[in-house]
Amino acid sequence: MLTIIQSYGVLLLQSLGKTIELCFLSLIFAMIIGLIFALCNVSKLKVFNLIGTVYIDAIRGVPLIVLAYFIYFGIPAGFQAINIPIRLSALTAGIIALSMNCGAYMAEIIRAGIQSVDKGQSEAARALGLTYGQTMRQIVLPQAFKTMIPSIINQFIITLKDTSILSVIGFPELTNQGKNIAAINFKILETWAIVGLMYMIVIITLSKIAKAIERKIKFAS
What we know:
The protein is mainly alpha-helical. It is 84% helix and 0% strand.
């Protein structure tokens, strides 16, 4: 195991960095997607409710690996069929797939956070002359965000683990790099033990952060 660390440690750390980068970027876009469809779901307009529900149900009903294949292989093939050459990098396709997948779950987290805020505060804000948008930005979302932080960190952990699925499209994240290293040195047990340990350290650290934040929020409230 020590030999693998000495020979491939830097490479594995670089792959872990790419994994975290992919996860972080995907989470940012997922937050935007989640906010949009969460607002659709809490809207009083049925057409927006329908749009939010269809998106969430559709994306959550498709396995991430199928979504990744569709975006990386299917979309370019579709454009080529109409004589429009297009090619997505593994990073771009990975961010799109993870953002869409995580965004559907984030929408539910944000929706629950919004609905956890007392409706009386929204009604009071509207009575004072604030618009719906101002009420959301200034009153509802800041309070909802506090309750959402632990769930967002937990979703970050889930998304971090989901990055391993993107090895199927060739993105050089940690799992893919571990597969390549195991194929080179034939030390399968040791290589995957190191990869698993690296995931474990990051995920346990994030879990501890989530629990600490959750305790602070409960203590503050």
